[in-house]
Amino acid sequence: MTTHKTEDPLVARAKALKLHGLIAHWDEIDETGWIEPLIQWEEQERARRGLERRLKSARLGRFKPLADFDWSWPVSVTVRPSMT
């Protein structure tokens, strides 16, 4: 392992993504222009899929947009006295 590998921010991002095969062959692909977009795509896709997974596990369901809310309902709100 050379010193430039540990100092390169792209290597750090690849390590965070656990792209071990890419890191093992870093010296062969270091000068190519496709590494940074690949890592960026992988980060974005993992973030998107993670968000989808968390929303699904939260079981929030669907909500009505605020623009579709019926502001005329209810006409009045009755406040109940507290039971203290």
List low-confidence stretches: none
Main sheet record: none
Q: Roughly what is the average pLDDT, rounded to an integer?
A: 86
**What is the structural class?**
mainly alpha
Q: Span from first to last CA? A: 71 Å
The number of E-state strands comes to: 0
* Pattern of helices and strands: HHHHH
- What sort of overall outline do the alpha carbons produce when their principal axes are compared? elongated
Q: Estimate percent helicity.
A: 40-55%
Question: How many helical elements?
Answer: 5
Rounded Rg:
25 Å
Strand content: under 5%
Structure in words:
With 84 residues, this protein is mainly alpha-helical. 55% of the residues lie in helices and 0% in strands. The chain is built from 5 helices and no strands. It has helices at 3-7, 9-16, 20-24, 26-29, 35-58. It is elongated and about 75 Å long. The mean pLDDT is 86.
List the helices and strands and how they pair.
Blueprint: H1 3-7, H2 9-16, H3 20-24, H4 26-29, H5 35-58
